[in-house]
């Protein structure tokens, strides 16, 4: 099965500006951002991307109370993806289902909450929750999803910093090709806004966005950009081998064309444009494509002054010349940085381009940084194009992890 064709057959998501692909896409095309003010413990009112999905659509109150926000988002997205796929999940052998969920970090929220709670009781640990351990283990989001769905195949979380959303999809495709599973749920989730630590960490790095208008706070490529907007979110996909999807008459969103994961091995935080460019080139080579064959490049750019420039250097090195049909955009300008969910959500936002031939823009760019000026950059307004057959999605993360995923229009 090494060369089996892997296709996407279902999408389930919650983003700060939408709780379905239809709503999410509409808001990306009409310029609706999803950033608001959030009260953060010890830090006051900060800008954040908050999801407003209904956690009780698929779970009971007790499940939500006992579990985690990341688990709740995972269950919601998995169930939405299954419904979207049209599969009769009751007929699927549960030991042949794999769940692969990327996550930036997990356990910080619960640990901070428990320490805060016992501080009211002179730090007496008898008040420490007996749910703490299952809430904080790294496999929690996938584990909660497995428990909810009753699936007995492999279910685990992939820690890959902010490259994790792409990694969930990549790993799902790999396991299908290995024959380890016959049906996969993959993508990424994040509960990051519920931990003050991540806000404090970015603030200490002078990397936390500020703006009087929350909707305009996330400003990749703009000369006045001043940092990251921390967001929560989730996006999970159903993936299948092509012959299985066709046998049940499934609709197919896209086919996995190629991917690469590599490491900078150069800094804890600062990205390495040479390694990022290498990651992009290797993904193209695996897909059997040239740079000019790519029609949409979705950038990782988080609106940090140096990070945006370095990714633009990497993209310029690969797509700088001879790519007139390559269009470049960014989704974080609408939703902020959804951390472990970022790559999966950003891919989803572009998938409808295969049908409507429209590239959603990067918004909030009033004054383009000359060092971020790229041929094909789509700014502030959607762009109608002649062809969209391929989408390349970049996601990069701390400690130098890079991921590039390429999907293509499904052609039988």
List the helices and strands and how they pair.
Layout (H helix, E strand, L loop, with lengths): L5 E9 L6 H9 L5 E6 L3 E6 L11 H6 L2 H17 L11 E7 L4 H12 L12 H5 L3 H10 L5 E5 L4 H15 L4 E8 L5 H9 L25 E2 L1 E9 H6 L6 E10 L9 H15 L8 E3 L6 H15 L7 E3 L2 H4 L6 H9 L2 H4 L1 E2 L23 E2 L5 E8 L3 E8 L4
Parallel strand pairs: 3-7, 4-5, 4-6, 10-11, 10-14
Antiparallel strand pairs: 1-8, 1-9, 2-3, 6-8, 9-15, 12-13, 14-15
Helix pairs in contact: 3-6, 7-13, 10-11
Q: Can you describe what's shown?
A:
This protein has 412 residues and is α/β, with parallel strands linked by helices. It folds into two domains: 242 residues, Thiolase/Chalcone synthase (Peroxisomal Thiolase, Chain A, domain 1); 151 residues, Thiolase/Chalcone synthase (Peroxisomal Thiolase, Chain A, domain 1). Helix content is 33%, strand content 21%. The protein contains 14 helices and 15 strands. A ten-stranded mixed beta sheet has the order 5-4-6-8-1-9-15-14-10-11, sandwiched between helices. The chain has a three-stranded mixed beta sheet with strand order 2-3-7, with helices on one face. Strands 12-13 form a two-stranded antiparallel sheet. The protein is globular. The two termini are 18 Å apart. The model has no long low-confidence stretch (mean pLDDT 97).
The structural domain count equals 2
Structural class based on helices, strands and sheet pairing: alpha/beta
Average of per-residue pLDDT values: 97
Range of strand content: 15-25%
Number of helices: 14
Q: Which bin fits the share of residues in helices?
A: 25-40%
